[in-house]
Specification:
Blueprint (H helix, E strand, L loop, with lengths): L16 E7 L2 H12 L7 E6 L5 H12 L13 E4 L8 E5 L15 H4 L4 E5 L12 E8 L9 E8 L14
Parallel strand pairs: 2-5, 2-6, 4-5
Antiparallel strand pairs: 1-7, 3-4, 6-7
Helix pairs in contact: 1-2
Length: about 180
């Protein structure tokens, strides 16, 4: 795990804190999501990127379980966004699939993510190049898998926490 510099300014932001994991089954991906949920709080933006079938929704399903939210977490590809209210006193989960959305944040304004973000955990699949303007503090999750005609379940997951929010979060605890 790479350690961040202790200080950052607007001109020189804190570098990202990175952790890498190898996941060998959908169950392990979901468990990684459950463990990651323990580190999340209202106001967190999580950007998920990876090939089709990499496990983005499976990871989010684990996040939903870990956050204790209502409703089955499924891919929001056709509805674009789903809100899963908390069953307890935790934040709701806003799950967005930006795959069919082009352009940047302007095309996502109708989703009111900037309004939802302070009170929710917002997870955006395919969000790279589209939602970074929401906050300087965000968690990038990249899932790599073998492509082509393969039954290989191995995934390589890289988590990079950016900004002050993530500068003191020990992502390595997720491997415990």
């Amino acid at each position: 795990m790479e350690a961040p510099a202790p200080h950052g300014t607007a001109e020189t932001p804190l570098p990202g804190v990175t952790a890498k994991f190898t996941v060998t089954s959908p169950e392990q991906m979901q468990e990684l999501g459950r463990r990651l949920a323990k580190l999340l709080r209202a106001g967190d933006l999580v950007m998920l990127n990876g090939e089709l079938g990499a496990g983005k929704t499976t990871l989010t399903r684990g996040l939903g379980e870990g956050l204790g939210v209502r409703g089955a977490v499924t891919s929001p590809t056709f509805v674009i966004a789903r809100v899963h209210p908390s069953l307890g006193d935790g934040p709701p989960l806003v799950h967005v699939d930006a795959y069919r959305l082009g352009g940047g944040l302007d095309e996502m304004e109708d989703l009111d993510l900037d309004v939802s973000l302070p009170d929710s955990v917002v997870v955006v699949e395919w969000g790279e190049g589209k939602v970074e303007e929401l906050t300087d503090d965000r968690l990038h999750v990249v899932i790599h898998r073998a492509v082509g005609d393969t039954t290989d379940e191995v995934r390589h997951v890289t988590l990079t926490g950016l900004g002050h929010r993530w500068s003191t979060v020990g992502l390595a605890v997720l491997s415990a």
